[in-house]
Design brief:
With about 525 residues, the protein is of the alpha/beta class. Helix content is about 25%, strand content about 15%. The protein has helices at about 25, 40-45, 45-50, 85-100, 115-125, 185-200, 245-260, 275-280, 290-295, 300-315, 335, 355-370, 400-405, 445, 455-465, and strands spanning about 20, 55-60, 60-65, 75-80, 100-105, 135-140, 160-165, 170, 205-210, 265, 285-290, 320-325, 375-380, 475, 485-490, 495-500, 510-515, 530-535. The radius of gyration is 23 Å and the shape is globular. Bound molecules: alpha-D-glucopyranose. Alpha-D-glucopyranose (GLC) binds near residues 68 and 108.
């Protein structure tokens, strides 16, 4: 891989990196057709460099019918023409690198699109063919095979996981019918993914985000749940979640990544911290997303527990924690923190949940400083730095399959995927409509405004990058009043976040580096405010 003109030591950049998630379709539109594209990203690279991020994670940009926003990949070696070309992706990777920014791509190993060449061949070849062995095809139950072969519920709102094809067989899909699950017991499936990894590493990609990383391996008998929970079974082997044989897959991937000095971040939603940490053993994945922190309500006690447990579960395997407040699947932070229930839960999503955006924004600002002061890597989801709220997408415009599979009760995930407002001028025919009040959030309007969310993120990311103490090293909790989180980091750095019901005094310090809101007239730290101090 080419040399990187980067500000961080090359070998362990990922341990403390700030990684920006680009949802390509909604980031920036280079050709004015209403869909974000690689030309748009290339034009905005200076903005990202200015923001102070170390790497970009691109949600899937490959050829896809977009049945699930690109998580239905038809060809890993082709960029979707709506986004650009492979040559442009290569240019983008190189241009980002010139600015000191690395690139991560998203690999979706659990399934492919039903338009993928393998699945089309499997359909054409018919029952009993070697082509069908790459997937999970089974005859149906019932006298005429008219009933699905199994009872697993979908990861998307419980609907079924089996679809029948015209010749009578059924195939398994944990997500939508357009996303047939691959058979990870098949050597060709393993080989193909190893080649795809190499394909992207050869193009200078510095890392890979692994989609649904704990779901790939299945019990070959595909046994029924028979009334048991579709969630992980603590202490027992589940038919499709977190199976032991997955670790051999990730060990082989790690060996490939090591050849290129590249890294992994796994999407691993597991409640059991010991099982979670297994994915982070030194010869497996470098990092995994921390969804317990993301889902945590705005509550000092719960956040402290989540932080403490996260650090404790990562320590034995020597892996850095990751800190995430939102992504393309969950409710945007300023909206969530302004609600009565400030936690995140897929099952609780509903239309019309009231929110106080002023309060939510104030808390999101404090949450940003809290998060960016924690030891490990941080992720920023596009638009988070603009303080975008969750958009109310009109029902007729919703595209997310989660909405349709819920029978229309779940608003789905489009509200956090609406195209970014760069200027007061909306996109030309954006694929999802931008709310009428979004000019107020436009990046050019926030630029230079000392009180804007963008300025807060730029300043915080800049300080975090400049101050080695914010990277690795220990976190020590300080005694603090109820509802207040206070901890030190190396080099005399101190973070205090006030989630209590009123203002509190600051601990002794020599200077105030940054505050999410101003101190009050008497120098107290107001409610829902965080500061970075130096002692
Ligand atoms: C992951 C992705 C999500 C996608 C799903 C199926 O959870 O983050 O967007 O729908 O996997 O690939």
């Amino acid at each position: 891989m080419a040399d990187f003109p980067l500000p961080r030591p090359a070998a362990d950049w990922w341990r403390t990196a700030a990684i920006y998630q680009v949802y390509v379709r909604s980031f920036a539109d280079g050709d004015g057709d209403g869909t974000g594209d690689l030309a748009g990203v290339r034009a905005r690279l200076p903005y990202l460099a200015d923001l102070g991020v170390d790497a970009l994670w691109f949600t899937p940009w490959y050829l896809s019918p977009l049945a699930d926003g690109g998580y239905d990949v038809a060809d890993y070696r082709t960029i979707d023409p709506a986004f650009g070309t492979l040559a442009e992706a290569e240019k983008l990777i190189a241009e980002a690198r010139e600015l000191g920014i690395r690139t991560l791509v998203d690999i979706v190993p659990n399934h492919v699109s039903d338009r993928h060449a393998w699945f089309r061949a499997a359909l054409a070849a018919g029952p009993g063919s070697p082509e069908r062995e790459l997937f999970h095809f089974r005859p149906g139950r019932g006298e005429h095979g008219e009933l699905p072969p199994g009872d697993w519920p979908s990861q998307f709102n419980g609907a079924g996981t089996w679809t029948r094809v015209p010749d009578g067989e059924w195939y398994l899909h944990l997500f939508t019918p357009q996303q047939p699950d691959l058979n990870w017991d098949h050597p060709a499936v393993r080989r193909e993914h190893e080649e795809v990894l190499r394909f992207w590493f050869e193009r200078g990609v510095a890392g890979v985000r692994i989609d649904s990383a704990a779901l790939l391996a299945k019990d070959p008998a595909l046994p029924d749940l028979a009334g048991r929970s579709p969630e992980p079974w603590p202490g027992e082997t589940h038919p499709y979640i977190d199976r032991d044989e997955l670790h051999a897959v990730y060990r082989s991937w790690r060996a490939i990544a090591d050849e290129y000095g590249a890294i992994f971040v796994g999407e691993v939603w597991l409640p059991d911290s010991e099982r979670f940490a297994r994915y982070l053993r030194p010869d497996e994945l470098h990092t995994a997303f921390n969804f317990s922190f993301l889902s945590c309500p705005w509550d000092a006690g719960r956040l402290r527990t989540s932080i403490t447990e996260t650090l404790a579960e990562h320590a034995p395997v020597g892996a850095p924690a990751t800190w995430v407040l939102c992504n393309h699947d969950v409710t945007r932070t300023v909206t969530r923190y302004g609600r009565a229930d400030t936690g995140f839960d897929f099952a609780a999503k509903a239309f019309g949940t009231p929110t106080d955006l002023e309060l939510g924004t104030r808390r999101a600002r404090a949450a940003a400083l809290l998060t960016l002061a924690l030891p490990g890597a941080v992720y920023v989801y596009q638009g988070e730095e603009l303080g975008l709220p969750e958009a109310d997408v009109p029902i007729g415009r919703i595209q997310d399959p989660m909405h349709f599979r819920s029978g229309g009760t779940d608003p789905g995930r489009d509200g956090c995927r609406v195209p970014l407002p760069w200027t007061a001028e909306p996109w030309n025919e954006p694929w999802l409509p931008q709310p009428a009040d979004w000019p107020a959030y436009a990046a050019d309007r926030q630029d230079g405004d000392p009180d804007s969310m963008l300025t807060l993120y730029r300043t915080a990311l800049g300080l975090r990058r400049a101050a080695a103490g914010f990277g690795g090293g220990a976190l020590e909790w300080l005694n603090a009043p109820p509802g207040v989180l206070a901890f030190t980091r190396p080099d005399g750095l101190l973070c205090v976040a006030n989630l209590s019901g009123g203002p509190v005094a600051l601990p002794a310090h020599t200077s105030l580096l940054l505050g999410s809101s101003a101190l009050d007239d008497t120098g107290l730290l107001p409610q829902d405010t965080a500061v970075w101090l130096r002692t």
